[in-house]
Amino acid sequence: MSRSIVSVRELWNEWEHGLSGGRPVKELEKQHGARWCTNGERRFFNRRRKIIDLVTTTADKMLSREAIARSAAIDAAVTRVNAVRTAHRKSLNWLSLNAETAARQLGADVAAPGKTSRTKPSTINLGITTPALPPTSTTAGSNSTVATSQTEGPARSL
After folding, report:
1. Which of 22, 95, 143, 158 has a beta carbon 3.0–4.6 Å from 18's, enabling a disulfide?
2. CB neighbour list of residue 68: distance below 8 Å, 6 or more residues apart
3. Opening angle at CA 40, ends 39 and 42, nearest 5
């Protein structure tokens, strides 16, 4: 896999069509598994594979909600995943390491079973609604306590 790729679109093209007359990575993986790359490149491949999985999961979610062609769903998913990356002003490596956060922003679920994330919901506007937990408040006499979600810190007394 090429280390000079900087966008999700370029990564998807390498995966689907190959670069500079080379074979598509999808074909190499299907035929050889991860054995086609050296041990040093395997970690890099696995990180890039998370982004490919994020694109396909996002496209599958779009297909289940909308009556569109698979190629149109893939194209839209590539654009949306890249929009998450550019909204954060981050690299493809960041996207692979934060695939669960990106999936939540995209409305796709790519988290491993039983694995939870400890990050707060993002406030970046991508045209996608991300539900946030509202703080709860209780009033007891003159003392008022506001409890916030666990990710924001302990409860505070007013």
Report:
1. 22
2. 62, 76
3. 60
Domain annotation covers residue 38: yes
66 assigned to some structural domain: yes
Q: Which residues of 83-100 are buried (b: 16+ CB within 10 A; e: fewer)?
A: bbbeebeeebeebbebbb
Position 101 in a domain: yes
Global pTM reads: 0.65
The one-letter code for the residue type at 113 is: P
* φ and ψ at residue 140, rounded to 5 degrees: -125, 100
Provide the 3-class DSSP secondary structure of residue 11.
helix
Domain count of the fold of the chain:
1
Q: What is the pLDDT of residues 101-148, one digit of tens each?
A: 899 888 755 443 334 444 444 444 444 443 344 444 444 444 444 444
Kindly state the tokens that stand for 11. Answer: 């990564």
Contact 128, 107 (CB under 8 A): yes
User: Do the domain assignments include residue 134?
Assistant: no
**Concatenated DSSP letters of 125-153:** -SS-----PPPEEEEETTEEEEE--TTT-
Tell me which residue range forms the domain holding 71. 8-112
